[in-house]
Amino acid sequence: MSRHVVLVGMMGAGKTTIGSRLARLLDRPFVDSDVQVERRAHRTVRQIFERDGEAAFRVLEAEALAEALFSEEPSVIAAAGGTVLDPLNRRRMQDCGTVVFLDAPPDALVGRVGGDDHRPLLGDDPAPVLQQMYADRRALYEEVADLVVDSSAQTPEEIVERILEEVGR
Ligand code: S3P
What we know:
5 strands, binds shikimate-3-phosphate
């Protein structure tokens, strides 16, 4: 099975920024699980949450992630923040890719999550929600990761370099 590079981490950790740069340098496709969910459902992430609820979104998300992970073409995959909640998603990530946890403390995430419409869980006051999510999920990100990179203290270029050291070019 192909070895993808799979980026995990909280909303605002930099999965899209880092993932698209990395994909360019590795000359691989970049696949974002939220974008795949929206393509498959013909609706936005927010619409899915609002009309069908989080549980329905998680089912679509698991399907979209599986499709990306089972693809033969080695890719860089941004796995949305909540994908690690599902043990099957975690196992598939580990089986199919090198998993990189982009870690950043909640304080650093708050400033980065504004202005994006695909994060309905954050509501009007993201700080406490991100604190709680980080507390709930951090161990899951660590469990699944082959590599943990602090994404708050380094530039995107430095982070990409660090990942390339691990996965090769
Ligand atoms: C979520 C993260 C979002 C999106 C949805 C739920 C989460 O993706 O899937 O709003 O539960 O952490 P990003 O991590 O790409 O922002």
